């Protein structure tokens, strides 16, 4: 029975290589082209999100080579963005300003229409 790789003429080595990305390949895919050292830190130490949570990039080691699957990279980026969202949403809503509220109340008492 032939599997999809054999039908496409891929060897096992080619199939494995197509599943994994080197840190250089990951770097080339991302905006700003972060260095491989930065990507390695994302794997080892993670990135501290705005919420304080550490998000790590899943990786595998093949001898001395560090590799990442595209799905792992996608999950890392979406987890990092999701962890930032509560903080960003709080920052987007303005904090109540008591001085402003008093000024608006004063204007309304004087009969001035305030939106």
- The helicity comes to 55-70%
Order of helices and strands: HHEHHEEEEHH
Number of helices: 6
In spatial order, strands of the major sheet run: 1-5-4
- How many structurally independent domains? 1
> How would a textbook summarize the main sheet?
3 strands, antiparallel
Mean pLDDT: 84
Shape: rod-shaped
Fraction of residues in β-strands = 5-15%
Unreliable stretches? none
- Spatial gap, N to C terminus: 73 Å
**What class do helices, strands and sheet pairing give?**
alpha+beta
Number of strands: 5
Radius of gyration: 25 Å
Describe the structure.
This protein is of the alpha+beta class. It has one domain. The chain has 6 helices and 5 strands, in the order ααβααββββαα. Strand 4 and strand 5 form a beta hairpin. It is rod-shaped, with a radius of gyration of 25 Å. The mean pLDDT is 84.
List the helices and strands and how they pair.
Elements: H1 4-8, H2 12-19, E1 20-22, H3 23-29, H4 36-44, E2 47-48, E3 54-55, E4 60-62, E5 65-69, H5 70-92, H6 98-109
